Amino acid sequence: MKTVCLTAPAAWALSGVSTHLRHLQRSELAARYRLVHFQVGREGRVENGLQRLGRLALGPAAFSRFLRRERIDLVHFNSSMDGKAFFRDMSLALAARTVGARIVFQIHGGELAERFLRRQKLAQPIIDRLCRLPDAWVFLYEAERRSLRAVFPVARAEVIPNGVEAAAYDISRTERSAQAVVFGYLGRLVEAKGIGDAIEALALLKREGRLPPLEFRIAGDGPDRDRLRALAAEHGLDEVVSFPGTLYDAAKIDFLKNIDVLLFPSHGEGLPYTLLEAMAAGAAVVTTPLGGIPDVLVEEENALFVPPKDPPAIAAAVVRLARSAPLRRAMGEANAARIRVSYTTEAVARRIGELYAKVLCES
To answer: What is the DSSP string of 269-281?
Structure first.
């Protein structure tokens, strides 16, 4: 049995890449390959600045030792088109090459490659060499693949979207017409997710006397948690906005099954797991049409799209869905059906396994 190393933050970290790791570890892929995890990144660690500097400086050497000790045949990097993550993981890819391991390099968001790579003018000769290291690239949506090929003619680049464990979600929903409509967000509490924009939208509706009976449950944790709490309190939304904290496994599934609408006005995305999981649970969606999101959602059929950083547009979408149970129901049913047809963990694992086999056959 061949051994594959998956790079990712801690498996329990609140991260899309960590979710990807857990799904692959629980998939049929684990029966075909011996999967081992090498932790990268800051998420899931407790360290001071000096410890972080030492980890980064010694990372490639430590990774080489790990690969030799575990007798790794292939490394599946889970990275992004972000300066820190890209160059960190490419330094580890160099180490992988020194021990003869094959390389699959998967991009989970960040900038489109064309813009990112062309901004790195001083490092262009180095980047050209680094981009030749992977035996295969994997992207979450087609625009990412086209963007890389526009600046670098990679031999093998495949689109494999994220998938979710759809069977875990029971989409049967009881009508709660007599209660407040429940909007929800689940994920990292950082400015780029647009949660503050959503709170501002609710504040706008309250000032104008147009706020429907609703709840907005914001699950997760991150550096913006206290700021978001203060923002909700400042606008007198304490009875509307709640923060249930970080949720995992059954608690996360239960949370998503008990929201009517996912409110996800992010400023930039690849293909977020939260979106796919909420769809699997039968929720309607309000989101921004960025990254791979338009590949999954059709406006008016699966979701209402809003521009990034636009609280008035978010407010209008919130009112429309809060007042129309039939629209929420139709979107939720369409979303659950779409996930079960095209975006399951089983389908993702099968395609990744096929890619591993191709790459390893060439060694």
So the answer is: -SS-HHHHHHHHT
Q: List, as one string, the DSSP characters of 269-334.
A: -SS-HHHHHHHHTT-EEEE---TTHHHH--BTTTEEE--TT-HHHHHHHHHHHHT-HHHHHHHHHH
Q: Are 15 and 43 in contact (CB under 8 A)?
A: yes
Structure tokens, 206: 């309250």
C-alpha to C-alpha distance for 62 and 96, rounded to whole angstroms: 11
Q: How many CB atoms lie within 10 A of CB 210?
A: 12
Cα distance between residue 222 and residue 227, in whole Å:
10
Q: How far, in Å, CA of 71 to CA of 4, rounded?
A: 9
H helix or E strand, kind and range, residue 139: strand 136-139
Distance from chain centroid for Cα 190: 13
Domain coordinates in residue numbering, the chain: 3-163+344-361, 166-342
- Rounded CA-CA distance 161/240 in Å is 34
pLDDT in tens, 35-66: 999 999 776 676 676 666 667 666 799 999 99
Type of residue numbered 248: Y
- How many other CB atoms are there within 10 angstroms of residue 50's CB atom? 8
- Per-residue pLDDT for 319 more than 90? yes
CATH number of 166-342: 3.40.50.2000
How many angstroms separate the most distant Cα atoms in the chain? 66
Angle at 348 between CA 347 and CA 353, to 5 degrees: 100
- CATH 3.40.50.2000 matches 3-163+344-361: yes
pLDDT tens for each residue of 325-343: 999 999 999 999 999 999 9
Q: What share of the chain is helix, strand, coil (3-state, %, to 5)?
A: 50, 20, 35
Q: Which of 273, 263, 264, 269 is nearest to 291 (CA)?
A: 269
Q: Angle between the 345-361 and 16-25 helix axes, to the nearest 10 degrees?
A: 80
Tell me the per-residue pLDDT of 104-120, one tens digit each, with 9 for 90 and over. Answer: 999 998 888 888 877 87
Domains 3-163+344-361 and 166-342 share a fold: yes
Rg (the chain; Cα; Å): 21
- Residue 151 per-residue DSSP state: H
pLDDT category at 174 given cuts 50, 70, 90 is: low
